[in-house]
């Protein structure tokens, strides 16, 4: 069960009556919101978790007293505000009584410094770290305002909800926010000045007697110096607007130990009362507020069964062959259409086949696969040591046909197969050097097993810690599309063209979509190639053919709650952006991605291109849209959630749908995705148990042809159409783990090739 603005009122009403699933949804959905607010309010205090827990206790206990269910979110934030105020009051009382004897009250635990945690979780650019540090200079009342405004900037609260949480009118809240922003800008300038390699002598003199602890008195003294000093004050001119920095900073994930603590509390009976559950999953009152919390926390960790999965047609069992080291021939006329055959390839060294993306959620690492005009093929994969890309030659039966070509490189992000070799998009050490020690992007051509040429794709002003890219070839020109980072730490993307000899070709761009979390690319007869970006700045998906940034005039393909990574890597994330854009012979396209949809979408009055978006689902469903050509969508996108511009192949809140791919399949297309039984979602990312990989045949207009089918195999690389109308792809034959984040990748020494008969 998930919560959106459309259904939140009904969920609150159900929760007030004791519905287990409704209470579970409320607690699950709002725990990250409360945790981030309390953390930024308390700053260095060590009792953030206690206040969060107390807030949820009171919210569940007092839910029946909420007269207007539609105002649940600001009501909850008001409870959190009062709990923080009460904690401040109790701490000040304790300090006044014990300060001479208990100096530990003045020493914060570094591990609970929320500003430090925020700085670590944000992008590594200096200005984002400095903004987190600047919050320590704010007055307490401004810290409260910042905590709420930060949530507004991240798209978690509206301005009206912020005002109601503060118990103010919208106009008065706006004034309070403006005053806070002015103080924050002063604080940011102070942090920059104090961190300067060569500190101004007058500033050093002004700091005489300072104990290195941020405070209002020293903020005013330092600010006075900055106003009068051209050297120190000039630092403010280079600062990026705060709202841009905050909006691109994700909500800090709720710590695992806090969730574990809540779980233990609910399971050990430490509440001192017995809890019973009545019929239909409704709660039976047990007589105390503490017991109410125990029940609420119990349902938070003990979810009910979800809805039944979508109807599927099982793959033909007679045609599916178990992975075998012996190559299986390509499909022939005697094999039924839709039948799947497999071939297993042995690898000389381990392959770490999972990768943590933008959100830390593991997904299939990119294994580019390409077929040459003569029917032979190549498969690229990154060795587990992260130092070399192995490119494996395959025969027409997709069995190994020789030894790997080992290419020094740190990522396999695009592959083109030629009759005499291949071209690979990868990254290596940056010969120009750069601020962050990142690698540089390279396009490398191999011919007859030897390097023919290598072309550097980045320059002295950009680098790339991950390509997240793709490579296309139209017979005469390569198009390489990948993520880049500038010297300030900001992320964008670059599309560049190279000739068959590796020389630069006009077109493309040096800087594109902000914080791009997805790239799709397809070759045209001549540049510009068709391209789509997932712009992570209050936007969504854009058809950005021929332009770097989606202004002006680019067709918007999807409204997405993209700020701070909420798009959750719609095309697969780090090392996984591929097989999402299919071109038909008449110039039409289909694009597929994982989407949370939207229940509200409107232009942001504070931004000339951004949108304010409220997600429809907490989980992701499979979305498809059609393009008339490389420049225009078939149906214009509107803000109406029921728009005809997007077709959802799945429509459920019970299952997450990830690893979405699409490939050309004869005259049609074939979309595939992994289905995950949801156990919980946070900040646009869900955890759960993998329940299978599904496929759906689509017409060129994106309409389903028949029902989805459970494949019995997975997808870990490019979906490549074959000359006879069949479809081929690689995968690792081990069930993926979508239950947690941050794990080290497992390794394998086999990759399985799949052919689905056309």
UniProtKB/TrEMBL annotation:
It comes from the Bacteria. It holds the Pfam family Sigma70_r2. Residues 314-323 have a biased composition (Low complexity). InterPro entries: RNA_pol_sigma-70-like (IPR039425), RNA_pol_sigma-70_dom (IPR014284), RNA_pol_sigma70_r2 (IPR007627), RNA_pol_sigma_r2 (IPR013325). The keyword Transcription regulation applies. Residues 26-91 form the RNA polymerase sigma-70 region domain. Residues 87-108, 314-334 are annotated as: Disordered. Keywords: Sigma factor, Transcription, Transcription regulation. NCBIfam families: sigma70-ECF. This is RNA polymerase sigma factor. It comes from Actinoplanes subglobosus. The lineage of its organism: Bacteria, Bacillati, Actinomycetota, Actinomycetes, Micromonosporales.
């Amino acid at each position: 069960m998930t919560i959106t603005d459309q259904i939140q009122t009904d969920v609150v009403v159900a929760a007030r009556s004791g519905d287990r699933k409704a209470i579970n949804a409320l607690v699950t959905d709002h725990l990250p919101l409360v945790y981030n607010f309390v953390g930024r309010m308390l700053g260095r205090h060590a009792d953030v978790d206690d206040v969060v827990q107390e807030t949820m206790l009171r919210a569940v206990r007092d839910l029946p007293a909420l007269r207007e269910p539609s105002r649940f979110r600001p009501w909850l934030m008001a409870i959190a505000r009062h709990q923080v105020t009460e904690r401040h009051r109790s701490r000040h009382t304790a300090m006044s009584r014990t300060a001479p004897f208990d100096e530990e009250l003045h020493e914060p635990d570094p591990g609970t410094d929320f500003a430090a945690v925020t700085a670590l979780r944000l992008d590594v650019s200096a200005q984002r770290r400095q903004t987190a540090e600047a919050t320590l200079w704010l007055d307490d009342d401004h810290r409260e305002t910042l905590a709420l405004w930060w949530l507004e900037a991240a798209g978690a609260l509206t301005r009206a909800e912020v005002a109601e949480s503060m118990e103010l009118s919208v106009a008065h809240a706006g004034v309070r926010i403006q005053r806070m922003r002015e103080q924050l800008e002063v604080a940011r300038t102070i942090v920059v000045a104090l961190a300067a390699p060569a500190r101004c002598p007058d500033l050093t003199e002004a700091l005489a007697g300072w104990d290195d602890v941020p405070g209002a008195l020293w903020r005013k003294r330092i600010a006075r110096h900055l106003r009068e000093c051209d050297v120190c004050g000039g630092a403010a001119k280079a600062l990026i607007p705060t709202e841009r920095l905050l909006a691109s900073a994700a909500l800090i994930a709720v710590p695992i130990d806090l969730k574990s603590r809540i779980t233990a509390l609910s399971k050990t009976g430490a509440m001192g009362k017995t809890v019973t559950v009545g019929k239909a999953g409704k709660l039976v009152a047990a007589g105390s507020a503490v017991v109410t919390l125990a029940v609420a926390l119990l349902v938070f960790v003990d979810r009910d069964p979800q809805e039944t999965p979508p109807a599927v047609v099982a793959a033909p069992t007679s045609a599916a062959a178990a992975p075998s080291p012996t190559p299986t021939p390509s499909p022939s006329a005697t094999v039924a259409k839709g039948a799947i055959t497999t071939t297993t390839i042995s690898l000389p060294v381990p392959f770490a086949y999972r990768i943590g993306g933008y959100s830390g959620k593991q997904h299939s690492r990119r294994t580019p696969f390409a077929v040459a005009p003569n029917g032979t093929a190549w498969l690229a994969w990154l060795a587990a040591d992260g130092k070399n890309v192995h490119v494996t030659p395959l025969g027409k039966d997709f069995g190994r046909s020789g030894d790997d070509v080992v290419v020094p490189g740190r990522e396999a992000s695009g592959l083109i197969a030629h009759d005499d070799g291949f071209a690979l998009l990868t990254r290596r050490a940056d010969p120009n050097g750069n601020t962050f020690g990142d690698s540089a992007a390279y396009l490398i051509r191999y011919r007859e097993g030897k390097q023919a040429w290598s072309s550097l794709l980045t320059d002295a002003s950009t680098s790339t810690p991950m390509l997240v890219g793709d490579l296309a070839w139209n017979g005469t020109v390569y198009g390489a599309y990948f993520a880049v980072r500038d010297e300030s730490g900001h992320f964008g993307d670059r599309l560049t063209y190279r000739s068959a000899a590796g020389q630069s070709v006009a077109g493309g761009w040096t800087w594109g979509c902000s914080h791009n979390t997805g790239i799709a690319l397809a070759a045209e007869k001549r540049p510009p190639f068709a391209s789509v970006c997932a712009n992570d700045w209050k936007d969504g998906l854009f058809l950005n053919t021929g332009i770097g940034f989606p202004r002006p005039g680019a067709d918007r393909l999807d409204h997405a709650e993209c700020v701070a990574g909420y798009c959750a890597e719609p095309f697969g994330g780090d090392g996984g952006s591929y097989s999402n854009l299919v071109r038909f012979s008449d110039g039409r396209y289909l694009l597929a991605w994982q989407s949370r949809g939207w229940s509200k979408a409107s232009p942001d009055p504070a931004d000339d291109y951004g949108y304010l978006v409220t997600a429809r689902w907490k989980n992701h469903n499979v979305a498809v849209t059609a393009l008339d050509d490389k420049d225009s969508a078939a149906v214009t996108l509107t803000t109406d959630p029921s728009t005809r511009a997007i077709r959802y192949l799945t429509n459920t809140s019970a299952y997450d749908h990830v690893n979405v791919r699409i490939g050309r399949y004869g005259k049609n297309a074939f979309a595939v995705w992994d289905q995950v039984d949801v156990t919980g979602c946070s900040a646009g990312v869900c955890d759960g148990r993998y329940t299978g990989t599904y496929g759906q045949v689509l017409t060129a207009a994106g309409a389903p042809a028949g029902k989805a089918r459970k494949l019995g195999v997975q997808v870990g690389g490019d979906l490549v159409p074959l000359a006879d109308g069949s479809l081929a792809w690689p995968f690792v034959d081990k069930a993926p783990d979508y239950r947690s984040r941050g794990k080290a990748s497992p390794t394998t020494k086999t990759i399985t090739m799949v052919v689905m008969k056309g």
